[in-house]
User: Which sequence fits this backbone?
């Protein structure tokens, strides 16, 4: 019981942090370009992950890194953080946070679709039913409730948000084949990607940021979205005897996120966002719970 209680608190801590990052993305992008936010957040994340590794004693695992691991980190690091976050931040730069966040939340369905050609898996009927319900929610959000008109408020932003789910799903599939401890693998991926991200930023927007608010936001994103939250969630999954129960707590995140978006960003939450998010989460629940029991 003690471990289960600790696991629950760790998971809730991760969920709370993840619930704030949509607001942090949107606020930070008021002061810096997406590539600048990515560059500074990646550097802070790398430092954070390094500290977490030392504290947990996993830094010795880095000495066992071979050439194959480095090549894997190069591929995965280009995918995440480089491509994934630059596409995601570009989506947040074009869409209200209340729209970009739930659209990005559909990555689990993208993963199911990509698993067909890449992992030779088959869709279950609950994958199909859950996906149809979830993407109905995407349609409601993308059209801002005007579901009978094929008129997206910002089609480029919608495509970027959905494109980020493809990159994240690809990263997840690639990471699933990585035998290294998750924290070590993530640090290695970020370490390899950091010079690429910084170079891309220097050649485009430049590393200089005029407003300190942007740097504070990037530090928050790097420390918590890319670092501490991951460690808390990993700790929860290791302590619990019921990964499914802990995993279901993640469904609190998008709804809490709307609260923070309203309070911190000041966006008036549209009814279409709430309806669309309910459909997306319903689809996810159907996919995960009924698929396991099938």
Assistant:
């Amino acid at each position: 019981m003690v471990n289960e209680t600790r696991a629950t608190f760790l998971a809730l801590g991760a969920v709370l942090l993840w619930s704030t990052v949509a607001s942090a993305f949107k606020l930070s992008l008021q002061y810096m370009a997406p590539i600048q936010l990515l560059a500074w957040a990646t550097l802070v994340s790398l430092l954070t992950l390094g500290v977490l590794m030392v504290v947990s004693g996993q830094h010795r695992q880095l000495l066992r890194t071979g050439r194959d691991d480095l090549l894997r980190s190069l591929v995965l690091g280009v995918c995440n953080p480089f491509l994934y976050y630059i596409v995601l931040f570009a989506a947040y730069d074009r869409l209200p946070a209340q729209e970009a966040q739930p659209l990005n939340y559909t990555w689990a369905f993208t993963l199911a679709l990509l698993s067909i050609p890449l992992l030779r898996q088959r869709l279950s009927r609950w994958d199909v039913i859950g996906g149809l319900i979830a993407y109905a929610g995407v349609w409601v959000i993308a059209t801002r409730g005007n579901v009978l008109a094929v008129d997206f408020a910002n089609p480029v932003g919608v495509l970027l948000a959905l494109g980020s789910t493809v990159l994240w799903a690809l990263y997840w599939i690639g990471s699933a084949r990585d035998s290294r401890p998750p924290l070590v693998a993530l640090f290695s991926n970020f370490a390899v990607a950091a010079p690429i991200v910084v170079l891309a930023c220097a050649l485009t927007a430049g590393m200089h940021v005029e407003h300190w608010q942007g740097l504070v936001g990037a530090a928050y994103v790097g420390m918590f979205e890319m670092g501490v939250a991951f460690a808390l969630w990993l700790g929860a999954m290791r302590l619990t005897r019921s990964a499914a129960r802990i995993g279901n707590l993640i469904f609190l995140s998008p709804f809490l996120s709307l609260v923070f978006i309203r309070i911190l960003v000041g966006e008036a939450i549209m009814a279409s966002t709430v309806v669309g998010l309910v459909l997306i989460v319903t689809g996810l629940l159907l996919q995960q719970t009924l698929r396991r029991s099938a």
Remarks:
- The first helix runs from residue 2 to 28.
